[in-house]
Amino acid sequence: MVAPSLLSANFGNLEHDIDLINRSSADWLHIDVMDGVFVPNISFGFPVLEYVNRLSDKPLDVHLMIVDPTKFIAECKKIGAMMMNVHYEACTHLNRAVNAIREAGMQAGVTLNPHTPVELLEDIVQNVDLVLLMSVNPGFGGQKFIENTYSKIARLRSMIERKNARTLIEVDGGVTLQNAPKLYAAGADVLVSGNAIFKSENMIETISLMKQ
Ligand code: DX5
Ligand code: ZN
């Protein structure tokens, strides 16, 4: 699957860019929420996302780069999030967080920063719907892909298989048409892509090439 990241869209005309995504073969719309504390940047918040939800035909894949993300479970539900991704590094009680997200009626994703080993998910991976592997340090679009991600995908894939789980693997940061085939071969199910899609000449075509 392919999930274009709204962070790279033209914020001056979100309606135009979301309309293009609606008409494309993209599977989800990836939404990066930042608080300036967990990451050194601020993006957009829930009042904006209420409108994004109204405009988007694609399911919303919300990636919270914020401290204490469980405070915002109700807000995420309200803006129509299909998937709520919280960072492993931001949750002291991850099991409780995942249960609360699911009880609210959303799918639960756990996100790992580039330095966080996938082995730390040994006791929770079977209870989450998705693991989001950061392939750049979170906070900004347009950064260079970290090569160690391939090994993380492969190790996570074998952990999921060993447990007979159905957890999806999503990769976020520096994904391009060039590295997409290798990420898929390593075991990724969902590719998030910002700059490679929104800065391309024909977004709809780029998305369809990435899916192929
Ligand atoms: C980074 C965000 C990403 C970002 C990806 O903090 O989580 O979703 O938008 O953008 P590209 O594909 O440009 O690296
Ligand atoms: Zn993201």
Write the H/E string, N to C: EHEHEHEHEEHEHEHH
Largest sheet: 8 strands, parallel
Helix content: 25-40%
How many domains make up the 3D coordinates?
1
Number of strands: 8
What molecules are bound to this protein? D-xylitol-5-phosphate, zinc ion
- Looking at the structure, what is the overall shape? globular
Order of strands, main sheet, comes to 1-8-7-6-5-4-3-2
Q: Indicate the mean pLDDT.
A: 98
Topology-level CATH name: TIM Barrel
State the end-to-end CA separation: 10 Å
What would you note in describing this structure?
The protein has one domain: Alpha-Beta Barrel (TIM Barrel). It has helices at 14-22, 46-55, 73-78, 94-103, 149-162, 180-186, 195-198, 203-211, and strands at residues 2-4, 29-34, 60-65, 81-87, 107-112, 130-134, 168-172, 190-193. Helix content is 33%, strand content 20%. The protein has an eight-stranded parallel beta sheet with strand order 1-8-7-6-5-4-3-2. With 212 residues, the protein is α/β, with parallel strands linked by helices. The protein starts with a strand and ends with a helix. The chain is globular, with a radius of gyration of 16 Å. Strand 3, helix 3 (73-78) and strand 4 (81-87) form a beta-alpha-beta unit. It has eight helices and eight strands, in the order E-H-E-H-E-H-E-H-E-E-H-E-H-E-H-H. Zinc ion binds at residues 5, 30, 32, 63, 172, 192. Residues 5, 30, 32, 63, 172, 192 line the site of zinc ion.
